[in-house]
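User: Run a structure prediction on this.
Assistant: Running it now.
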Amino acid sequence: MGDKAKTPAGAAGRAPTADRPSDIRNVVLVGHSGSGKTTLVEALAQTAGAVNRAGRVEDGGTVSDYDEIEHRQQRSVQLSLVPVGWDGYKINLLDTPGTPTSSGS
């Protein structure tokens, strides 16, 4: 994947910036519930230096599953954006739920 972005590594929530739209990439992860989308986001965020350690869905410690209902159900219920920097690009990782949810969940 090339070299890490020139932006300093930081805690989740400290998003890298891009000066031009051509420096932004959006990556949407789509798949069935339990297929590993959130785990992949965690690994990519750690590799890019956006987080110090990859969280685990089972422990409720992932950067993209932050809501209490997601911790209880151990699955994503809403779209999450995790921005990372890599090789001068801002990459927006979009972690999608794998199971359709109703507003009453």
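The beta strands are 24-29, 80-86, 89-95.
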